[in-house]
Amino acid sequence: DAKTTQPTSMDCAEGRAANLPCNHSTISGNEYVYWYRQIHSQGPQYIIHGLKNNETNEMASLIITEDRKSSTLILPHATLRDTAVYYCIVRVEGSARQLTFGSGTQLTVLP
Amino acid sequence: DAGITQSPRHKVTETGTPVTLRCHQTENHRYMYWYRQDPGHGLRLIHYSYGVKDTDKGEVSDGYSVSRSKTEDFLLTLESATSSQTSVYFCAISESTGLNTGELFFGEGSRLTVL
Fold first, then answer.
1. Min Cα–Cα distance to chain B from A17, Å
2. Taking CB atoms and an 8 Å limit, are A96 and B102 in contact across chains?
3. Which three-class secondary structure state does DSSP give residue A82?
4. What is the DSSP string of A6-21?
5. Residue A36 to residues A46, A83, B104: CA-CA distances in angstroms?
6. Are the CB atoms for B58 and B45 separated by under 8 Å?
7. Which residues of A touch B92 (CB under 8 A)?
8. What pLDDT digit, counting tens, does each position of B30-54 carry?
9. Of A22, A65, B21, B40, which has the fewest Cβ atoms less than 10 A away?
C-alpha cells in the first residue's frame, strides 16, 4: 500500500484558505486519495476523494498533482469549526481492508 | 448523519473480564468495520465484515473476535480484556469498496478502560 506523509500540525487564520498537503509518492494507478477529518472526540468524517482529476464539493477541493505523487486539500474559507485532525489516505481499489489511517495533520484555525 | 449507534459509549472493566461492544446500523450497508484509536497510532483496523457471517482480520486483530449474525449488527468481543486494550473504539460502515466509492461513515466511539 502507498504510504502517506503529512505535516504533524498547521495553523490557519479564520476566513483564510487552509491548504493541507499530503505526499504519496508510491501511489499506484488503482489507488484513490481520500481525505477524512476528525473533530476532537468524534468519529472521523469523510471529506472528499479523487483518483487523478481535481475534485470539489461543498466542503473542500482536492488538488492532485499530475504525477499523482502528492495532493492538497483546500478548505476555501476556514472557520473555527474546521479545527480538527485531517487524514490523507490512499486506498486500494476494491479492498475494504486497506483503508488505513495514519497520524494526520492537526489543523488549528485561529480567530 | 448515517444511522450508526455504538454501545456502550463508555465502559470501565477489570483485566481478565469479557467485554462486548455493539455496533448497530440502520443504513443496510454491506460493510462494517471496527477500529481502535490510541494516542500516537491514529486509527487502526481491528476486524471488518463484508456481509452476514463474513468477516476478516485487520492489522491489530489479536485479542479480538467479531460476529455478524444480522446485517445491522456487528459485535466486537474481547474475550479476556487486558490493559493494552484500553482505547477508543470506532465502528464504521460503508456500502461498497468498489470504484469511486468506499466512503466510510463512523459512529461516535466507545471509550473502554481496562483496569
1. 25
2. yes
3. helix
4. --SEEEEETTS-EEEE
5. 4, 13, 9
6. yes
7. 43-44
8. 889 999 999 877 788 999 998 999 9
9. B40
